[in-house]
Specification:
Length: 210
């Protein structure tokens, strides 16, 4: 599934693309690389993380929470969300869930980049974000996932997430859990599994890059 991103707003493009960061990609570069792919069951991504034009944006958003990087990534997510929404029943509402980080990890960094992405999607594209439904367990922050081996990541289970207040939410709605980068897909898979076990029928993961 490919998506044209020629509809990027000119004001957005002029304010962000190539202006404040010369190593950020142009509109044309993103368009040439952009493709929604189902990389694992229920998990989609759009861009190659290691590409020289993509990695700088992701790292500035992931590590520094830079507003211009967050905005570019939010715009990319928006284009993918529009396509995913077209592929579903138009009568089913769609909600965004930022993939939660553990309380320890968030305290160490001072932010959760997925929450920043959700905020940008809310503010600029009017998506509805569901907060405090999916929560990561405290113990999952004691060892950063990036320090785990591939086999250890693949063995992660949905027990690392808790589901709260299910009675307040529509179990038949579409819930998209957004993330920045997917490697093995184990964390997103665990989050999706947790929601499905709680009775949510339509859950998918969407990451910017793989």
């Amino acid at each position: 599934m490919t998506i044209s991103i020629r509809t990027f707003r000119d004001s957005f493009h002029n304010a962000v693309f190539g202006k404040t960061k010369t190593n950020y990609p142009t509109r044309e570069e993103i368009e040439s690389l952009f493709k929604i792919s189902l990389i694992y069951k229920d998990i989609y991504c759009m861009l190659p993380f290691q590409h020289r034009s993509i990695k700088p944006i992701i790292m500035d958003m992931k590590s520094k929470n830079l507003p211009e990087a967050v905005m570019i990534c939010a715009e990319i997510l928006h284009k993918a969300l529009c396509e995913l929404q077209k592929s579903t029943d138009g009568n089913i509402p769609m909600f965004i869930i930022p993939l939660p980080s553990s309380p320890i990890r968030k305290m160490q960094k001072g932010f959760n980049q997925c929450e920043s992405l959700a905020k940008a999607l809310e503010t600029n594209f009017k998506y509805i974000t569901v907060r405090n439904l999916l929560r990561k367990n405290l113990w999952s922050g004691f060892r950063e996932q990036k320090a785990s081996s591939r086999s250890e990541r693949l063995n992660l289970t949905s027990d690392q997430f808790q589901i709260r207040n299910t009675t307040k939410h529509d179990l038949k709605a579409m819930y998209i859990i957004i993330d920045d980068v997917v490697t093995t897909g184990s964390t997103l898979r665990a989050a999706i599994n947790a929601m499905q076990k709680a009775g949510f029928m339509n859950v998918a993961g969407l990451a910017i890059a793989h």
